[in-house]
Amino acid sequence: MAQINPSILSADFARLADEARAVEGADWLHVDVMDNHFVPNLTLGVPVVESLRKATDIPLDCHLMIEDPDRWAPAYVDAGAGSVTFHVEAAAAPVRLAREIRAKGARASMALKPATPIEPYEDLLPELDMVLVMTVEPGFGGQAFLDVTLPKIRRTRKLIERHGLSLWLQVDGGVSTATIERCAEAGADVFVAGSAVYGADDPAAAVAALREQAERAGHPTSPTTSG
Ligand SMILES: O=C(CO)[C@@H](O)[C@H](O)COP(=O)(O)O
Ligand SMILES: [Co+2]
């Protein structure tokens, strides 16, 4: 089944608990952590993740857009994240970091900015539970989807298949009813959507519509779309 992860970056930060509950049919809640160094924007950190964990039953998918994730990522597992994504461009020791995240009980995920190729990191795939291919430059919600990332989604799906792995392949940035089919056809099976969900009159209905569209277009061999 295709998974839809609403990004709270597009939610009302003064009402985060309510905003989390507004999408309770969603698979994961995507939490964008930005440090104003790795990206030119600042959002939230460990205490907010701890509070969100208490406020909702949806598992938390923390996307760390921060420098030195080797140092900070484990604290997000302790705070209650079920999945922690670090940017490979920022990680000093990605294998060690992925192992540490998994050893602490969360899913480990590696993100790639639009211009970062997957091929140099092929050997890391068995250490991971998910790869995130960014479909906009990280830092802000509401940006236009970058079509130039579609070939990388396809190549990443092929590498996952070649290695016989059941990794999830997440896309994040500009995902909407206008772009989700292209992502699903290319092989993505986990879809982050911020403005397309929280900008809708009925966020829960927007999640359901996106999921249905992704499943119809889904790549036949991706583990989450083939049942
Ligand atoms: O990580 C990021 C942005 O850096 C995302 O998770 C955005 O929050 C997605 O927002 P939309 O592009 O869907 O509005
Ligand atoms: Co994100």
UniProtKB/TrEMBL annotation:
Catalytic activity: D-ribulose 5-phosphate = D-xylulose 5-phosphate
The name this protein goes by in its record: Ribulose-phosphate 3-epimerase
One of the record's GO molecular function terms: D-ribulose-phosphate 3-epimerase activity
Top-level lineage group: Bacteria
Residues bound to a divalent metal cation: H30, D32, H63, D172
Keywords: Carbohydrate metabolism, Isomerase, Metal-binding
Assigned protein family: Belongs to the ribulose-phosphate 3-epimerase family.
Coiled coil region boundaries: none
Cofactor(s) in the UniProt record: Zn(2+); Co(2+); a divalent metal cation; Mn(2+)
InterPro entries to which the protein is assigned, alphabetical: Aldolase_TIM (IPR013785), Ribul_P_3_epim (IPR026019), Ribul_P_3_epim-like (IPR000056), RibuloseP-bd_barrel (IPR011060)
Protein's job: Catalyzes the reversible epimerization of D-ribulose 5-phosphate to D-xylulose 5-phosphate.
Enzyme nomenclature, EC number: 5.1.3.1
The gene coding this protein: rpe
Keyword Lipid biosynthesis: no
Binding positions (substrate): S7, H63, G139, F140, G141, G142, D172, G173, G174, G194, S195
Cofactor, free-text remark: Binds 1 divalent metal cation per subunit.
Source taxonomy: Bacteria, Bacillati, Actinomycetota, Actinomycetes, Kitasatosporales
Residues at the active site: D32, D172
Pathway assigned to this chain's UniProt record: Carbohydrate degradation
PROSITE patterns: RIBUL_P_3_EPIMER_1, RIBUL_P_3_EPIMER_2
